[in-house]
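Async update (no meeting this week)

Hi team, since we skipped the sync, here's where things stand on the single-chain job. The sequence we agreed to prioritize is pasted below, unchanged from the tracker. I ran it this morning and attached the output directly underneath so nobody has to dig for it. Comments welcome in thread, and please keep replies under the output.
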Amino acid sequence: MALGSNVGDREAHLAYARERLAGLPRTRLIAASQVEETEPLGPVPQGRYLNQMVLLETTLTPLDLLERLHAIEAERGRQRTVRWGPRTLDLDIVRFGERHAREANLVIPHPELPNRAFWQAEIAELERE
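Output:
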């Protein structure tokens, strides 16, 4: 799971997400990477992001997990108005074990994984633990 925030108290948003993810039913937070600051991606001018990757163990389905992620984002004030726009909290399923998915609102592995060196570094950090 990738966590990101560039609006408001970014550190508090990430901490909230970690706490809520750890409390999801049939889910356990196994590890968390270091938090790092990155430049925003995409065409919309905005502030820098704090990013982090967490490793979850879950028996939730990918779509059920995605629905719960959107609820957590909404709890922190996330509004989906501008594509690639600023976000209080952004939670992405980057990988889901060896599973693949191609749904209207969910692609696993995340299609941006090859383009985000910071995600790859964070995953590598988690895999070393």
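Quick observations from my side:
The chain has one domain: 2-128.
The CA atoms of residues 101 and 108 lie 5 Å apart.
Reply here if anything looks off.
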